[in-house]
Amino acid sequence: MTGEPSASLNRVAIVNRGESAMRFLNAAREYGIERGTPLETVALYTEADAASWFVRAADHAINLGPTMVTDPETGARRHTYLDTGIVESALVLSGADAVWPGWGFVAENPDFVRMCDRLGVQFIGPTAASMDMLGDKIAAKRIAESVDVPVVPWSGGPVDTVEEAVEHAKRIGFPVVLKAAAGGGGRGIRLVRNEIELPAAFKSARAEADSAFGDATLFVEAQITGGRHLEVQVAADNSGNVWTLGLRDCSVQRRRQKVLEESAPVDIDDALQQAIREAARRMCQAVDYTNVGTVEFLFQPSTGSFYFLEVNTRLQVEHTVTEAVTGVDLVKLQLDIAQGAQLAPDSPEVRGHAIEVRLNAEDPKRGFTPAPGRVVELRVPQGPWIRTDAGVAEGDTIASEFDSMIAKVIAWGRDRPEALARLRRALGRSQAVIEGGTTNRRFLMALLDNPEIQQGNVDTTWLDRALDEGILLDSPDAPLAMVCAAVEAYRTDHADALDQFAGSAVHGRLHPLSDETAAIDLEYEGERRSFRVQQRSPNNFDVEIDGLRIAARVEELGQFERRISVAGRELSLVVVPSGPLITVELDHSVYRIVRGHGGLIRAESQCVIAKVAVEVGDEVNPGDVLLITEAMKMESPLMAPFGGRVSEIVAGAGTLVGAGDPIIRIEAVDDEGPADTTQMSFAALAHNPAQLNQHDEDRDVLTRLVLGQDLSGSAVGDALTRVGELSFTAGLHVLGIVADRMALFAGDPELDNGAGRRPMRTDLLLVALRAPDRITEVAPADFVARLRQMLAHYDVTEISQSTELTDALFNIWRAESRLGRIARMSAGVLETWLESDDHDPNRSAELVDVLDRLIDASEAAYPTVTDLARAVRHRLVEAPAIEALRAADEKVAEGLLADAGAGAREAAFAGLRRLPEPIDHYLAAQTADPARAAVALRALVRRTHRHRTLDDFEVLTTPEPIVGVRTGRRDGIGRMEMLAFAGPSARLADLVAGAAEYLTAGHTEALEIEIILRDNETRTDVAAAVEAALPALPPGCPEVNVVVTWWQGSRDDERGSRRHCVFAGADSRFTRVDGTAGIHPATADRVELWRFNQFDISAVDAPDGIHLIKAVAKENPQDERLLAVLEVFDLDGDAHVTNQLAQAAIAIRRARALLPDPSVSLSNRIIFYVEPRWTLTDAQLQSLIVDLLPLTRGLGLEKVIGRVRVGDAGSGDLVDEVIHVTTPPTVGVMVGRTKPSPTPLRPMSEYRRRVVAMQRRGLVYPYEIVELLVGTGATHTELPTGEFTEYDFVGEQFEVVDRPRGNNTARVVTGVIDSHAASGATFRRVLILNDPSRDLGSLAEPECRRIVAALDLATELGVPVEWYAVSSGARIAMDSGTENLDWTAAVLRRIIEFTQGGGEINVMVVGVNVGAQSYFDAESTMLMHTSGVLIMVGNSAMVLTGKQALEFSGGVAAEDNAGIGGYARIAGPNGQAQFWVADVESGCALLFAHYESSQSKGARFDTADPADRDISGFPHRNEAGGTSFACVGEIFSAQHNPDRKRPFDIRSVMSAVMDQDAPVLERWPGWEDAQNVVAWDTRLGGFAVSLIGIESRNLRRPLPRPADGPDTWTSGTLFPQSSKKLARVINGASGKRPLVILANLSGFDGSPESMAKLQLEYGAEIGRAIVNFRGPIVFSVISRYHGGAYVVFSKSLNANMEVSAVTGSRASVIGGAPAAAVVFTREVRERVRRHPEVVELERQIAAESADEQPMLQHRLHQLTAQVTTEIQAIVAREFDDIHTVERALQVGSIDHIVAPPDLRPYLISAVQRGLERSTSETVLRKGN
Fold first, then answer.
1. Biotin carboxylation domain location, by residue (predicted)?
2. I need a labelling partner for 561 at 20 to 30 A (CA). Which of 217, 461, 632, 1286 fits?
């Protein structure tokens, strides 16, 4: 520049938008900074750009209104920027002194310039006159010709009609170009190749010109083929100076739209460049051009000629290329020229090379159709020598009404290759993601990589030719793009599924998840495919297509950026999902893939449907035009991607549609598919089957099955069919996960009632979903541990809020629907293990762990899995151990046999006799030495007949290898001779023949012959073979019995299973004797098998040593039982006994599994015969049975019976006794003893049938509870024994009935029971037991009458009621209804009357109580005046409506009834139930503890704990809450606890004062939010008392915590629930036991939360309870005692209340600190005012000047605050020092001050005094 601007611009209005506006805003900001005076900017915008970047960046902005307006004259719609009236108004409003038009819109409109001149607003650009001359392309051509600038042959002027255009075209010669006279930017131009095309082109070009420029004038010129588009950037000042700033090559064009621009042109020498530049200069000078512009030329390389095209009287888009090579900022140059600056004489020099491309929101694959939308991600190109001029920012929306440019990217280099390389690199590292749209970025990258572009020799038609030939727009990776899109669609679906899953958890409901892998239907370029995707890990996916499986690893690098690895290729790509549209940018290509098909054609981008070219019913072929869309004023045809018939037009003409919106549906014709699905091949991407290890794949598939992860149905099916081929290691791995999964949400095993599958604890899953970060606070610790174990399989290490956790829980929940298949798969693995020996013995510990966990997890839900797991455990783990025991026994037997042969026969025989029965096979198999074999046979015979006395043995002479012995025995009818022969089964005939020799006519004694086959038999017809070999009996032969023993071969026991058959000789022949079920007659005699003579019995395979019998009652075939009989010969250790019992249980289980209906077999028994003296105590036997309980679950085992011999208590002689061990559900292990029964076992009675039926449903028959209460047998809790007297109506009289158990006439049993405790006390109660065996214990008149009568009886007897509750509520039947409700109401009334009259009802909930029964429970035990306890057993529940009925009626239920009203989640936390126990027996024991403490009424028990014991040294527990005392005495120490403010553990103090040998029964231990009240029933100095403590340390409050309540349950404070609990404890103890309260009470919590939760009401209930309490109350303040708590515990409330305080305690209306802060504020203020430092500072302030006073006033404010705090502390101490317990004693508020060492003796004496007062009052009342 040679001169500075003469004028000054202050505010410039921008009549443009987007990138153009941003270009000026950036330049103006710099311009203002450079000159030191800001240049204000005003953005004029339309509604579509209201939130755009340029609007935000401008200093001011004015809204022009709608984006498009309608021309009132023509009706045409045009951009608002073209409406000069609207723009004029905005300019006036803006106050701008200049206008910058940018490019497009009004930039070349001379009328707009003249308007600006009229307004006095400077137009930054050329004059209107210049525009008139040059803007009209026709006039411009004429000017060019006038200054010797060559022009292309043309029409010489405008053409107004088609005919004129044809005439000129013919003259010029086709091809020709139609051009808009006012055109620019490639618009209004049409190439015409022949005369036929011209009319349509003329019409289209004219319409576009009119729409774009408001001028429809056209002209015709020759089409120069092979030409290059060159242009000269010019700048001219007002003095006539013209710069030509280099030459640009814009030859890379698509349909005359510039795509790539560069400077300088390639292969044009300097002379030619200079000639072109000079031609441009002459053009400008010819019209006195000012400001900047562009002169365009067409260069024909073949001739070296160039032709003038036009002058753009504005700045052009590609001006930035010139700026890059000249260093001139053309926008700032415009500002300088507009203000009168002069240009230097010489144009700036050109330096280096620059290239520009335009990054647009357009789809190259769709004919570069605009693809606008919201910019969701924008990472602009950057790096050395890279410039990016963007018009949008991330978050902006590219409006469909405007051009689609996102940014221009310019690269500069020292030469062209460097500039190309920089531009390619920058584009590759940039990113632009358009929601619902796409960009041409990949196309630009392909363009820059093209060899012809890199060479630079291209003309203006090259790009169109390349595109027509498919160059740059090929789709080489379409299959891979489809795979990527399928994975992305899966990820989107899965994310949605996770959101829905988590959302459902928020509402407390989990809906079932589909286990099907949904098809993902994708369409690309008319080709449609259906994919199925499974996620194998966070980044690994299997994609199934066309029967192929493609493994794809997809890593997320950003929101849209991905890295994919498929078939050895690793590529980076961009994937943009937008509704049904998935855009994949891969390598050089963009793939716009539509999800879902069915013939639906969707919009590729946002557009307006300009015209619909088809109608419903039309048949179309691929490529037919369906409709014309318009976007950014450009029309684009939408072609049919496939053939068919138009069935629906979804969007009609004029409709605005978004990307992916449906437009038209085309259906197939003649049942042919709408697309050819054979074109795209995915084979190159698929797995290579040869690389897969099938076993590893199967393990992976089965693992995923268990984990609930994605699966292919076919893969699962194949893996399940091959489950038997899994290696041991793989199977162990899978079953370990199965065990974890099945156990995860199962309820407590102790709650299993055997009635079926344990319900899933979905509440725990909901906790994990909704509050993972606090799960340890709100979920059971064992569940948290199981969850961590399970999550480890998903590689989730922390239970904290994360997508990974949600995903894992999602899969865990999905696996719930697979548990059936998982169980079948598990059974398959286990069955394989049973058949195979292929397992690693080194992993036995791991195997045991997995099997035990699997057994525990599956036993209720999947008994088959449990049974198989136990069988595997037995075979692979226990059987080897048993085998080791047998081997050890055989070694002992070998030594004993050796000794027997050496002469110590009797001792050896005695030793052999004690060995377990399985040793018999070993003895029978001795063959090596005949003498040794004879000894073994003698031992075997003696073992078999061990309960008999035998004669001496004689060895018989037999042929080897047969051995035989003779002996005899005496039975009740005489002597029987016994012969035994042993030999191999192959010599069966010889064995029988040898025995037959002794069947002589002269033989006079009864004879028993035993034939023993040594080796295992595989034949199943051994008995028949023996029978066939037996000879005929000689005449006169005495009684002859033949017993044959053999071992049947068995897969599970190589020794085989012992078998026997018996033949009786009579009438000259032998007949087989049935009835021994394969058991030796001697054994059958010992175990009293005759007792089963009313059953048909048969043998079942079992291990050697176990006799398994199937018994079916002859009179009742449904009474089917399995009996496992075993004999115990050694009690020195329990290993043999345990193993034999375990084998018996396993044998029953395996046999039961083979029954058609195993559930009918619920009276099975294990019977053991013990030869030696029985030495085990009942407790030892109980312990042994408890250890075996896991093996007996689900076994249908009625009892274990032992036939034993015990020492008589009087004589010491051995006598026979029968031990009965039973394990009733929810009762426990019971042991009873009886004398041997002389009568046969009867088939199942009606009573027993009911018991068994209840067992099947997990319930207890009421009379079984009665038997538990009256029985004399040992139990695990040693309940008292008692007598039960049943009551019932006889006629109208409710009286004692003497009848067998089970003959109750109603669905309830009532009576009176007396139980005799070990203490000598007798507890009488009235029993009420619901009978669920009839209609689930429903209630109607019969039941309700009896319940009311029982309550009347309890009133009459003055005893409590004990109610075993299980009922479905009021009876529902066709013949009864509301009358049953009336009867239940009558019961309710009687309960209220009974309890309000002081009666006590104790309820044990033993099942599910519904409706009325739940109300009975509540009225009996849950109200303030009630004193009874409510105990919940196992999985019992109290509900108003059962789960199924609740769900059917549309209500909200839980996963089971326990979830609606069980103890763990409902009745325990809300305080409705006092206790939970695992079984009825434990509940009974708890009730007796309650009676012991409740009915003593002041009785004193013996205690060894001294009454005067000093508690000071008692240890203090410091587990939590910030306590740190070593002993209890430190709590009361002024040294360790000044002011009594430190926290301490109240339980430690309570433990210190109570009798150390007394039991503790804690009331309501599970009541949530009431934990800071501790209530114990215990003893103090031998007195049964209710000892209450108020927790004196802060307790952590579970989450969530309301904002209006405390964060912790603070020390010594009563909250609503703890107040309610305290009131109920006091009421419950009234009239039953003295009340002792150890108080540290600061008062009631008064927070808004507590007040809203009835704090006042429950606090008042405490006061009422104290007033109404019957008996002594001892209230001792051990720390502090303030506020409202003082009121409700004042001694004024109850005359029999004695109040004391431990020395040093505090007692006042309020604490010192709050008193000083609230009550004594005036006193505090007065003392502060008189404080010397305050007085002095106030004096200084008064003496200082006004300027200095503010600082001193600030110091005074600080000092006053400091002194106030000090004074408050002083006043607080003074208050506390005054309001001591000593003062309280003086005024009579307390009765005693007690030193800490005297606390226990004082409390004991106070209780004693209170009891004496109570007795005196009682006597006095009676006397009155």
1. 8-468
2. 632
Peptide bond into 175 cis (omega under 30): yes
pLDDT at residue 747 in the model: 55
Taking the C-alpha atoms of residue 511 and residue 530, their distance in angstroms, rounded to an integer, is 27
| pTM for the whole structure | 0.67
The two structure tokens encoding residue 638: 């939408």
Is 1139 buried (19+), middle (13-18) or exposed (0-12) by CB count in 10 A?
A: buried
- Cβ(1359)–Cβ(1322) under 8 Å? no
Which secondary structure element, helix H or strand E, spans residue 1698, and what is its range? strand 1697-1702
Q: Do the Cβ atoms of 661 and 609 come closer than 8 Å? A: no
Residues 1760 and 1725 sit within 8 Å (Cβ to Cβ): no
Task: State how far the Cα of 1028 lies from the Cα of 1022, in Å rounded to an integer.
Answer: 10
b/e 241-269 (16+ beta carbons within 10 angstroms → b): bbbbbbbbbbbbbbebbbbbbbbbbeebe
Indicate if 1060 and 955 belong to the same structural domain: yes
Domain CATH for 1784? 3.90.226.10
Domain hosting 1376: range is 1259-1492
Residues 1263 and 286: their CA atoms lie apart, in Å, by 123
- Asked if residue 956 has pLDDT above 60, the reply is yes
> Cα separation of 1423 and 1706, whole Å?
34
Number of domains into which the chain is organized: 10
Where helices occur in 682-816 by DSSP H, the ranges are 694-707, 713-721, 728-744, 762-770, 775-778, 781-791, 803-814
How many whole angstroms separate alpha carbon 481 and alpha carbon 489? 12
Same domain, residue pair 1188 and 1303 = no
Residue 456 CA to its chain's centroid (Å): 61
Distance CA 1040, CA 1034 (A): 11
Same domain (yes/no): 1744, 1704: no
CA atoms within 13 A on the CB side of 1691: 19
On whether the CB atoms of residues 1348 and 1361 are closer than 8 A, the answer is no
Residue 1095, in any domain of the structure: yes
Residue type (1 letter), 364: P
Q: Do residue 1336 and residue 1418 come from a single domain?
A: yes
| CATH number of the domain within which 190 lies | 3.30.1490.20
The terminus-to-terminus CA distance of the chain in angstroms comes to 128
What is the C-alpha to C-alpha distance for residues 1138 and 1148, in angstroms, rounded to an integer? Answer: 15
Tell me the pairing of strands 656-657 and 291-300: unpaired
Boundary (domain end) residue, out of 1492, 1523, 1550: 1492
* 495: its two tokens: 């994310």
Our CA angle for 1727, 1733, 1735, nearest 5°, is 70
CATH number at residue 22: 3.40.50.20
Query: Do residue 1319 and residue 1227 come from a single domain?
Result: no
Q: Is 852 helix (H, G, I), strand (E, B) or coil?
A: helix
Return the structure tokens found at 1442: 């059962």
Both tokens of 76, joined, read 């045409």
Question: Encoding tokens for residue 1150?
Answer: 């395996």
The residue length of the chain stands at 1824
- Spatial contact of 636 and 367, defined as CB atoms under 8 Å apart: yes
Q: Is residue 1550 part of a domain?
A: no
Q: Which two tokens stand for residue 852?
A: 């035990």
* 381-384-385 Cα angle (round to 5): 85
What is the DSSP secondary-structure string of 908-924?
HHHHHHHS-TTHHHHHH
1763 and 1787 in one domain? no
1465-1497 pLDDT per residue, tens? 899 999 999 999 988 988 999 999 898 888 656
Query: Is residue 528 a part of any domain in this protein?
Result: yes
In a shared domain, residues 680 and 710: no
In whole angstroms, what is the distance from residue 1756 CA to residue 1708 CA?
35
339 burial level (CB within 10 Å; 0-12, 13-18, 19+): middle
Domain boundary among 692, 726, 757: 692
- Residues 706 and 735 sit within 8 Å (Cβ to Cβ): no
pLDDT in tens, 478-529: 899 999 999 998 988 888 888 888 877 776 667 777 777 778 888 888 788 8
